[in-house]
Design brief:
The protein is α/β, with parallel strands linked by helices and 118 residues long. It has four helices and five strands; from the N terminus they run ββααβαββα. The protein has helices spanning 18-29, 46-50, 68-79, 101-111, and strands at residues 2-4, 7-9, 63-67, 90-92, 98-99. Strands 2-3-5 form a three-stranded mixed beta sheet. The protein has a two-stranded parallel sheet with strand order 1-4. Helix 1 (18-29) packs parallel to helix 4. The longest helix is centred in the N-terminal third of the chain and has 12 residues, at 18-29. The termini are far apart. The model has no long low-confidence stretch (mean pLDDT 77).
């Protein structure tokens, strides 16, 4: 069985991935009112500006995302799948949930209650 997974996110993320970098910056700077200053809702996320130029993820493009626990459950289920004729099978795994780097940054700022977040 071949599985094609979308962007997988969750705890213990991969260093260099956009979710990891955003979370790392949030933890490192969450109490720095100067670096985290955002004057209005129209301002770009401060976290996003810190990771601008991140490879492999345009900050405005939405991608299908899958939580790591759901990916693990999918893999376990696929391990139990057997086609009657024994031929190989391939599955595109999607969650139907889309997110952009901008959305991730805004959510992290909101849930971590970043200083000066409007």
């Amino acid at each position: 069985v071949t599985l094609r997974l979308p962007f997988v996110y969750g705890p213990w993320g991969k260093q260099g991935s956009i979710d990891y970098e955003l979370a790392e910056k949030a933890v490192k700077h969450w109490n720095d009112e100067v670096k985290m200053k955002r004057t209005s809702d129209k301002d770009e996320s401060v976290l996003l500006s810190m990771v601008k130029g991140q490879k492999h993820w345009n900050h405005n493009v939405e991608r299908d995302v899958l939580f790591v626990d759901d990916a693990v459950n999918t893999i376990i289920t696929a391990m139990q799948y057997r086609k009657e004729d024994g031929s190989p099978s391939s599955f595109n795994i999607i969650s139907g949930e889309k997110a952009s780097a901008s959305t991730l940054a805004d959510l992290i700022e909101l849930f971590m209650q970043m200083p000066n977040h409007p």
